[in-house]
Amino acid sequence: SDDQKKFDAEFYAYGITGVILSWTENGMKTPPEELAAQLKRLARHSEKAAYIFHEEIKDSLVPEHMTFQKS
User: Fold this and answer.
1) Based on the number of CB atoms within 10 Å of its own CB, is 46 exposed (0-12), middle (13-18) or buried (19 or more)?
2) Burial annotation 3-42 (CB, 10 A radius, 16+ → b, else e)
3) pTM for the whole thing?
4) More reliable by pLDDT, 5 or 62
5) What whole-number distance in Å separates Cα of residue 2 and Cα of residue 8?
6) Residues 16, 11: Cα–Cα separation, whole Å
7) Quick one: which of 14, 20, 11, 23 has its CA closest to 49?
8) Upper half-sphere CA count for residue 30 (Cβ side, 13 Å)
9) What phi, psi does 63 have (nearest 5°)?
10) d(Cα 44, Cα 41) in Å, to the nearest integer?
11) If DSSP codes are grouped into helix, strand and coil, which group holds residue 51?
12) What angle do CA 10, 19, 15 make, to 5 degrees?
């Protein structure tokens, strides 16, 4: 739903913002390229997880009598 998408987007936005704020408040000891690579990796994994999660929900919404049975 649109509400779920908005919630998910806010969750990740606040998480990323929190990481960057923490990084700056703690003296930016990690090189910015490394931090960016870590955030990019996390975004990729999160995208995959969100896809799997939404596919599972979508599948659970289909009534059993409408699913195909494997022979």
Assistant:
1) middle
2) eeeeeeeeebeeeeeeeeeebeeeeeeeeeeeeeeebeee
3) 0.60
4) 5
5) 10
6) 9
7) 11
8) 16
9) -60, 145
10) 5
11) helix
12) 20
Condensed to tens digits (0 to 9), the pLDDT of residues 14-71 reads 999 999 999 999 999 999 999 999 999 988 888 777 777 777 776 666 566 555 555 5
CB 16 within 8 A of CB 39: yes
| Confidence band for 13, pLDDT divided at 50, 70 and 90 | confident
| Separation CA 48–CA 4 (nearest Å) | 16
Query: Is 45 exposed, middle or buried (CB count within 10 Å of its CB: 0-12, 13-18, 19+)?
Result: exposed
pLDDT on residue 25: 97
